[in-house]
Specification:
The chain contains 3 helices and 4 strands, in the order E-H-E-E-H-H-E. It is an alpha+beta fold. A 4-stranded antiparallel sheet has the order 2-3-1-4. InterPro entries: Dimeric_a/b-barrel, DUF1330.
Length: 95
C-alpha cells in the first residue's frame, strides 16, 4: 500500500535548512518518493502550527522508512538538526 511522509517544520536557521532541502529531495526521489505538497498555503485547524508542511507519497511504508534510514537522507538530516523543529510521520494510505 502507498504511504504518505508528512513533516511539520519550523525552520530556525534558513541557510542550514536550505542545505537539508537541497540534499533531501534527491534522497526522497531515489526511494520512490514524490512530493505532493511543500511549504504551500495551509489552514491550521487543531494542534501546534508549524509554518512549513511537507507531504511526499511513497510506494509503501517500508520504502519511506528505508529512505529515512538511508545514508543519503541521514546526511541531509544532519543539516536540519539544530536548524529546525520537526515532527515527521509515515502513514499508510487506504488506496
Amino acid at each position: 500500500m502507498p504511504a504518505l511522509w508528512i513533516a511539520h517544520v519550523t525552520v530556525t536557521d534558513a541557510e542550514a535548512y536550505g542545505k537539508y532541502a537541497e540534499l533531501a529531495g534527491p534522497a526522497i526521489a531515489a526511494h520512490g518518493g514524490q512530493f505532493i505538497a511543500r511549504g504551500g498555503r495551509f489552514v491550521q485547524l487543531e494542534g501546534r502550527e508549524r509554518p512549513r508542511n511537507v507531504v511526499a507519497r511513497f510506494p509503501s511504508v517500508e520504502a519511506a522508512v528505508a529512505c529515512y534510514n538511508s545514508p543519503e537522507y541521514q546526511a541531509a538530516l544532519d543539516h536540519a538538526r539544530g536548524a529546525s523543529e520537526r515532527e515527521l510521520m509515515v502513514v499508510e494510505t487506504s488506496e
